[in-house]
Amino acid sequence: MKKVAIIYGPPGAGKGTQANLLASALGFIHFDTGKYLEQLVNDPALQNDPIIQREKANFNAGVLCTPEWVLEIVRKKVNHLSNAGFSLAFSGSPRTMFEAFGDEKNESLLSVFEKEFGKENIFVFLLQVKSETSILRNSRRLICSVCGTVLLTNSYSGQTCPLCDASLRRRSLDVPEVIRVRLKEYAERTEPIIQNMRERGYSIHEIDGEPAPFQVFEEIKKVISG
Hints:
The strands form 2 sheets. Strands 2-3-1-4-8 form a 5-stranded parallel sheet, with helices on both faces. The protein contains 9 helices and 8 strands. It has helices at 15-26, 33-41, 50-61, 67-83, 97-101, 109-117, 131-139, 176-199, 213-225; strands at residues 4-8, 29-31, 88-91, 122-128, 141-144, 150-152, 168-169, 204-208. By secondary structure, it is of the alpha/beta class. It has one domain: P-loop containing nucleotide triphosphate hydrolases (Rossmann fold, 3-Layer(aba) Sandwich).
C-alpha cells in the first residue's frame, strides 16, 4: 500500500537523513523538495529565466521560494510518482500554509496526498532539536558535488568524498548567519502548518531528533510499520 511520510523539524534536525533511511530501508522515494529546487535554480539552461533568477536569489539567501511556484512544480511531480505506484517521503515539505492547504484557486499538496494515498496513509513526524544543535550541525556539513553524500567536518577531515572521490562543497545556506534566517522562517511559516494539521485531524508524531540517526529512525519505523 502506498504511503506518504512528511518529516518536519528545524534546519539540522535530520529530516533528509530520515527520509533517505525510509527510502533505503522501506522502499520510499525521497522527494527532497529543497534539492529539487536547488537543481532547478542552478540549472545553467534556465539562468535567463526571470522566475528562476528570482527564486535563486531567495534560495541562496535562506528565504523560502515563492509558494505558488513551489506548489505547482511539486504537485505535478507528486502526481507523476504516485501514478507510478511509489510511496513518498518528504523532508520539510510542504513548507508554508499555502503549499499545505492551498486556496480557492490552487489545490493544496495535502489534498493531492489525500486523493492519491488516502488520509489514513499520511504520516506526519516532527523532529525536535535545540536551536544550537541546528546551527552546529548545519555549519559542519559538507556535501559531495557528485553523489550528494553528506559529511560532517567534526567526524571527517578528508578533502574529497569517501564514496566517489569527488570534491566536497558547502551549501550557501549552511553558514550560521543564513541558518538563523532559516530558523526564523521555520518558526514563522512552517510551525503553523503543524498546528493546522492537528486541527484537521492529522496525528503529529513528535520524536526527539537529538540522538543518533539510527535511533531516531527506529522510532519512525515503528509508526510507519504499525
